[in-house]
């Protein structure tokens, strides 16, 4: 992999990580309930997708062409670096700085889960069983946040494959 691809992608990943970290800290400081809002996740997803796509496009502009592998690599490195930084910030906040915030958010997630299952008409015993299982999981524990990071990378990879297909451009010298 070219040094400039790695450098550009890592730099864009650092920018993404900084933005996601600032948003995380602001959400923590201003309103913890924002962590439970679905629309916040959608905004963060599109922000990450946009910056990672920008990274691939920028490398294509720099080089004049972009292979599928280079497009995916640029996208993936950007997302991986940015998400890793944001995950570390989340771990620091919810594991070391304020574990009570994690407890509060876990309780809110349980309430939302119960309301959603009731809204779908799930039987009461199914709801109780699901809530008992969910109570045992601390979504903000170190291991759970690392698992979420891995799942996030897998999810973003699907979009990375699509982005790489869209932005790739063959080397004119090889045609």
UniProtKB/TrEMBL annotation:
Membrane in keyword set: yes
Transmembrane segments: 12-30, 36-54, 75-97, 149-167
Keyword terms of this UniProt record: Membrane, Transmembrane, Transmembrane helix
Keyword presence, Transmembrane helix: yes
Name of the protein this chain belongs to: DUF4199 domain-containing protein
Organism: Formosa maritima
Lineage: Bacteria, Pseudomonadati, Bacteroidota, Flavobacteriia, Flavobacteriales
């Amino acid at each position: 992999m070219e040094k400039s691809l790695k450098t550009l992608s890592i730099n864009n990943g650092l920018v993404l990580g900084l933005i996601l970290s600032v948003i995380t800290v602001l959400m923590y400081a201003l309103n913890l309930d924002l962590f439970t809002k679905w629309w916040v996740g959608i905004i963060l997803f599109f922000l990450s997708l946009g910056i990672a796509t920008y990274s691939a496009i920028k490398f294509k502009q720099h080089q004049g062409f972009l292979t599928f592998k280079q497009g995916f690599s640029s996208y993936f490195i950007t997302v991986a670096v940015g998400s890793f930084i944001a995950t570390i910030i989340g771990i620091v906040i919810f594991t070391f700085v304020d574990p009570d915030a994690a407890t509060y958010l876990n309780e809110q997630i349980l309430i939302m889960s119960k309301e959603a299952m009731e809204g779908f008409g799930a039987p009461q015993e199914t709801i109780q069983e699901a809530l008992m299982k969910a109570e045992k999981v601390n979504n903000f524990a170190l291991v759970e946040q690392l698992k979420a990071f891995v799942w996030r990378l897998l999810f973003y990879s699907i979009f990375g494959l699509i982005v790489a297909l869209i932005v790739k451009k063959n080397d004119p010298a090889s045609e």
